[in-house]
Amino acid sequence: MLSINRERFKENFSALANIGVMREGGINRPTFSNGHFKAREWFKQKTIDAGFKFKVDNAGNHIARFNCPSSTSPVLIIGSHLDSVPNGGKYDGALGVVAALEVLQTVKDSGVILPYHLEAIDFTDEEGTLVGLLGSSAVAGKLSEMEIANPRGNQDVLVDGYTKLGLSPSTILTSKRAPESIAGYIELHIEQGKILYEENIQVGIVTKIVGINSCSVTFLGRADHAGTTKMEDRLDASQGASSFGLTLFNRIKNNYPACVVNIGKMVFHPGAFNIVPEKVVVSVEFRAPESRQLDEIKFDLITVAKESAKAYNLKVEINFLGKHPPVIMDPRVRSTIKRVADSLGLKSREMPSGAGHDSQSFARICPSGMIFIPSKGGISHSPKEFSYWKDCVNGANVLLNTVLQGADYVQLY
Ligand code: HGY
Ligand code: MN
Ligand code: MN
Question: Quick one: which atom of ligand 1 is closest to the CA of 212?
Fold first, then answer.
């Protein structure tokens, strides 16, 4: 068993945690924001300083590569994402990227020869400010033209961001790799839930990741004067949107206890105190452990949207914006992570992930696994996100030794 260089790991993590910081301490690095571009530059410089080959692929993924002796070998990929949700936490994604770089450096320093190349990758737009799992699903060949042309985020930000990188949305799909060139994928990530923290367990071994579907639901009414228009005469889009939200929440809570739905944004047009809203655009995301449930919820969502529109004499348009199916993590990778955790004297347990991750893209094409560490109070996507540093070091050492024992699970052709 090898151990990471704790000082270097801590120094790198702390340096990155100072990029894109908000006044109240949150991390603000939505895809292609200034903070995100700075974090990407930091990773690039670190990679070059460490003597690794640096590459940007056509999806904008930043790649540090450490070759093994045989040029025809496949590559074992480790990594995560440096983009964040608006005003998020400093561990989500960043921990996995810094740990991946640390693993490459420790393996290089150790002189250990592996039968596969290693890459540490910062994947573009994991969080879905624009598309979601953009960089990893492009490499895995699971991204569609439709998702790029019809992103859940701002299309202009997507185009401008790629232009700034000297790339174009039209070539993102060319970053697809042949599955046989990839030996496997391992990701270290915070749990973002409270199971490990409450059960006082140091390592989570992810068994499966939920499926995620997004859509925007637009209610269309008529702009009117807010003071002179009788309530019964209004075609008020806000009433349709509000009724839709509450009805959908209750439907999911009552009929799909293992699933979740979230309305993260409602945009009112024209959006003034004294105008009855003529249009409300509702951003909806729903998640389920089984594909069948995603399909059933989609059907229910359409039904509830139409009923809510009808109740207030409104029109409604529904635009589905990309879907990531639920995946199972490779049992051989899971047993290797378990064996490594045991050898390091760390308590571990198997568990599902309610959060989406880049490993969701790779699990569809190669042996993939995820290592979780505890999130204090289960808080994430918030400036209050926190993990104890000893847990971060444990996670990086489990990642390192799972990579070294890749012979147990990688696909070598
Ligand atoms: O939203 C998620 O589940 C993840 O944090 N991207
Ligand atoms: Mn994440
Ligand atoms: Mn996240």
Answer: 3
CA distances, 111 to each of 3, 175, 320 (Å): 13, 30, 49
Helix (H, G, I), strand (E, B) or coil at 303: helix
pLDDT of residue 413 exceeding 80, the answer is no
Q: How far is the CA of 151 from the centre of ligand 3 (A)?
A: 18
Q: 341 pLDDT band (50/70/90 cuts)?
A: very high
Calculate how far, in angstroms, residue 315's C-alpha sits from the geometric centre of ligand 3: 34
- Chain-centroid distance of CA 70 in Å reads 32
**Cα separation of 69 and 137, whole Å?**
28
* Pairwise CA distance, residues 3 & 60, whole Å: 31
Q: Which of 327, 357, 361 has most ligand 1 atoms within 8 Å of its beta carbon, as the pocket-test mutant?
A: 357
How many angstroms separate the CA atoms of 197 and 216, rounded?
35
**CA-93 nearest atom, ligand 1:** 5
- Do the beta carbons of residue 204 and residue 285 sit within 8 Å? no
CA–CA separation, 4 vs 106, rounded Å? 6
Compute CA 223 distance to the chain's CA centroid, rounded to the nearest angstrom: 38
Q: Is the per-residue pLDDT at 162 higher than 80?
A: yes
Q: Which ligand is nearest to the CA of 354?
A: 1
Q: Is 0.70 topped by the overall pTM?
A: yes
Q: What is the pLDDT of residue 182?
A: 98
What's the mean pLDDT in 167-182?
Answer: 96
For ligand 2, the distance from its centroid to the CA atom of residue 92, given in whole angstroms, is 5
Q: Which of 192, 260, 327 to mutate to test the pocket of ligand 1 (most atoms within 8 A of CB)?
A: 192
Distance 230 CA to ligand 1 centre (A): 43
Q: Is the peptide bond before 352 cis (omega within 30 degrees of 0)?
A: no
DSSP string, 318-338: EEEEEEE--EE--HHHHHHHH
Contacts of residue 10, defined as CB under 8 A and 6 or more positions apart, other chains included, come to 389
Say which residues have a Cβ less than 8 Å from residue 185's Cβ, sequence separation at least 6: 76, 77, 78, 358, 359, 362, 363, 366, 367, 368, 369
